Amino acid sequence: MSSFHWEENISLQCYNTFRIQVIARYVVRIQNASLNELVQSSLFQIHRHMILGGGSNLLFVERSYDGVVLKNEIPGIEPISRDDMHTSLKIGGGVTWSSLVDYCLTHNLGGIENLSLIPGTVGAAPIQNIGAYGVELSDVLESVETVDLVDGKTRTMTRAEC
């Protein structure tokens, strides 16, 4: 029995900032980084797939997507180390970027306040190396945990590797 819930024929209109009406053949909501079972499933292997975060850099041009949409909903903002000068956080890829900035401001963690109001999710931020007003994500990023969508294995990439 699969621990992933496969939804069929789901509207993605509320998941893209252009609000384009498109129907996805399958949607799987990802809430943790353990994807080994998912990527080995026959449905996943026979269909094309895409990852969907906040949908702010996505423009659908067809009325349907005949594949699997992996909706990144990995939650969490967790402090993992702190000293007088630095704090390291572990952040789920499904966290909205604005929620992360708000968290940092609320907890007096400086460094990314110039990146407020940027749409999207934390999971997409390293790919885009988001930046504004002289600050880029690469200035504060330590590492990224990735999942290989061929074998489901996780890997941690350093800032230099990103």
TrEMBL record:
GO biological process: cell wall organization
GO terms for MF: FAD binding; UDP-N-acetylmuramate dehydrogenase activity
Domain of life: Eukaryota
Protein name in the entry: FAD-binding PCMH-type domain-containing protein
InterPro entries: FAD-bd_PCMH, FAD-bd_PCMH-like_sf, FAD-bd_PCMH_sub1, FAD-bd_PCMH_sub2, MurB, Oxid_FAD_bind_N
Residue ranges occupied by any FAD-binding PCMH-type domain in the UniProt entry: 19-162
GO cellular component, one term: cytosol
